[in-house]
Design a protein that fits this description.
Layout: H1 6-31, H2 36-40, H3 48-75
């Protein structure tokens, strides 16, 4: 398996960050939020199912991350 060089990794992260900033800027201008608070909370206009799945994903993600590292430590990386 070929690994990325350090400079390629940094460039990838830089371009990814710039891409995310541009997407955020585009959607902020397209939706024309009235304030930063309105942008951060989507003008309080989120469907219940979207909010519920977002909360569920954030609750499941942290324990899964900790458990996966615990298993990798106990059983080895392939285990």
């Amino acid at each position: 398996m070929a690994y990325l060089s350090q400079s390629t990794g940094y460039l990838t992260l830089l371009f990814y960050g710039l891409f995310m900033i541009l997407i955020t800027y585009f959607f902020a201008r397209w939706r024309k939020y009235k304030s930063i608070q309105g942008f951060l909370v989507a003008e309080r206009n989120v469907n219940w199912w979207l909010g519920a799945t977002s909360i569920a994903a954030s609750w499941i993600w942290a324990p899964a991350l900790f458990v996966s590292t615990q298993f990798a430590y106990q059983q080895g990386l392939p285990g």
